[in-house]
Amino acid sequence: ATPLLELGFGDLGTADFRLVSSSPREVVFERTQSGVRVRKTFMFEEDSYRFRLRLEIANEGGAAAVAPAFGVMLPVRAHSGPDFRELTISILSQGSVERELLAGFGQPGFFSRQPELEHRFQGDVEWVSGHSHYFITAVIPDLPRDALATSFAFRPGEEAQVTVSQPPAAILPGTSLVREYSLFFGPKQPELLSAV
Q1: pLDDT value at position 148?
Q2: How far is CA 43 from CA 9, 15, 69, in A?
Q3: What is the pLDDT of residue 22?
Q4: What's the pLDDT at 97?
Q5: What DSSP letter does each residue of 39-102 carry, written as one string?
Q6: How far is CA 32 from CA 36, 39, 59, 118, in A?
Q7: What is the pLDDT at residue 122?
Q8: For the CA atoms of the chain, what is the radius of gyration?
Q9: 195 pLDDT higher than 60
Q10: Are 92 and 188 in contact (CB under 8 A)?
Q11: Sign (positive/negative) of CA torsion 182, 189, 76, 105?
């Protein structure tokens, strides 16, 4: 999902977008509100679990600049069954992989009665993911050096979200800005993941 809350239009991750065009390899959605046009282009690779998301925000109004953070949010939810017992959030930041089991994220533990509900990572964020024993969902920013990552226990032990974003950038009236992300939804097979 792409909430883009900084635009001041509510959560655009759940808003309706108009279908602009659709082909086997590319789908484009668009929404215009108060002079700001948000365009999402999904570009699919043939025979691949990987695709790209291009977010373009154009300030077509005559008023002030807008400053979105261009974030992509992954929901991570617990499901019944043994395949999801090890559901984990992972973030590769500054050369180190940080992992958090969803079942324990935000839950009080033996040493912590006030558990942390949020973890933040700034700079050199190469990817964020939610993964089970067999499957992984990952988001890879095109500009990892400036990327920010946040994991938040929305319902501790049951539901969390992990977001990767770029710092807010001013888009002056009459201009636009584009950010791109690679996404992978598929099995945790080394030969597939090495291509990502």
Answers
A1: 94
A2: 26, 21, 21
A3: 97
A4: 93
A5: EEEEEEPTT-SEEEEEEEEEE-SSS--B-----EEEEEE--SSGGGTT-EEEEEETTEEEEEEG
A6: 5, 9, 10, 32
A7: 92
A8: 18
A9: no
A10: no
A11: negative
Q: How far apart are CA 92 and CA 125, in angstroms?
A: 6
The length of the chain is 196
Residue 193 confidence (pLDDT): 54
Cα 177 → chain centroid: 18
**pLDDT on residue 112:** 66
Tell me the whole-structure pTM to 2 decimals. 0.86
User: 11-21 burial string, b = 16+ CB within 10 Å, else e?
Assistant: ebeeeeeeeee
Tokens 């086997």, residue? 24
Q: What are phi and psi of 39, to 5 degrees?
A: -120, 130
Distance CA 164, CA 141 (A): 7
Q: Which of 93, 159, 155, 103 is nearest to 128 (CA)?
A: 93
Place of tokens 């974030």: 71
CA-to-CA dists, residue 167 to 11, 36, 50, 139, angstroms: 18, 19, 25, 16
Task: Name the residue type at position 180.
Answer: E
Structure token digits, residue 165: 């974003």
User: Given the structure tokens 């969902």, which residue do they identify?
Assistant: 137
Cα–Cα distances in Å, from 124 out to 13, 119, 193? 25, 15, 20
What's the rounded Cα separation, in Å, for the pair 61 and 38?
Answer: 13
